[in-house]
Amino acid sequence: MKIIISFILLFNILYSHPHTFIEVYPTITVKNKITEKIHFVWKMDEMTSTMLIMEFDLNANNKLDLEEQQHIYENYFNSLMDYNFYTDITVNNKVEKFPKPKNFKAFIENNKLCYSFEIEKKLNITKTLLDFGDPDFFIAMILKKEFTRIIGATAVVSDLDNDFYFGYRLELK
Amino acid sequence: MSELYNQLLKQIITLQYQLNSYISTTIRNLNDENTLSTLLLVLGIAFLYGLIHAAGPGHGKALVAFYFVSNKSNYKKAFKMGYMISIIHAISALIFTFGIFYILKTMFRRNFNEMSAIAMQISAVMIIFVGLYLIYEAYKSKKIKEQEIHPSSKSEYAVAFSAGIVPCPGVMTIVLFCIVLKQYLLGILAAVTMSIGMGLTISVAGILSILFNKKAGNFLNSKGYILEIIGGMLILILGIFLFTSVGHK
After folding, report:
1. What is the ipTM of this complex?
2. B205: nearest CA in chain A?
3. I need a labelling partner for B130 at 20 to 30 A (CA). Which of A3, A30, A85, A142 fits?
4. Could you tell me which residues are beta bridge partners of residue A140?
């Protein structure tokens, strides 16, 4: 019976699994233990990128023009707010709402669709954690130490045990 | 959840991430260098990708597991079930991808999501019916005092069809990627080999459940119908859960 009960507990992870992989490249500027600027670049896997570029690059010139970028921002990127942009900012053990991203840009690099954006948020790095992952487990956020660029502090990247999905944690020291 | 489970998830993701990247780079290079060995390499990796991909959450493993936990069966049937699901999975993915690509062409992503949601809802309703049917069969077996009621092949096909009808987005992505690069035949072959890999993993879920059934069956002995009812109820709950979760998205 223990096995059956375990099955019931696992119900909510049984019907989704990563199909899209997003590499996260954070660049964070820190001054006196407070974040000044947080900038992210997301690079999607080549297969997903091919599918999305086909839809986004309306004039098929293999680059994303300003109007196309605006279309992506309004119709696709903005809706990720419901998912907190797959980034949980935890301050004093409490998850905060992800601030409205600024300076959004979408571009194609080495056949990959990339999003670039930044947030303005003053965070005390001694009390803050940045956790990356998708609770629906449809998207896998990939963060490696070499993807990070931290100015004025050092980064520690670790695995994140979210019980039902896998993620990465970025801690600044 | 245990550290072990978390590490398993990490390994599944990391391997898929690497294989995904390797497959896409190799397929793209096929345009310049179309050799048989590279083709076979892509198909081999697609098989491995399917094997690992199905090890992650999803693909009807829960449904298969519940079914075999509650019904006396043999390993051959578990393999048959695993491969029925993966064949339907592959056909469904090919039809959806080629269909959406050629009929709708534009707004692919949006339609892709909508079609997937509809397919998942159909699948969930079918799973609910399969659960109800299994409970009914178990109740009937209790009434006629048969301790070993063998599920009809009808219910096996229903289980396989319910789980397989939802096209695997992983397979769809590879197929679409190949279509865009005009590697049509490779797209179909990659979908088939990936599904063979997935079938093997799904079969393992069935085999593990049969093992559990054998052990539990010894304890329950004449009360075997209890296990059948529990299995049917779990499938029913799974169907309801899936139906409501699709509705929320």
Report:
1. 0.78
2. A7
3. A3
4. A21
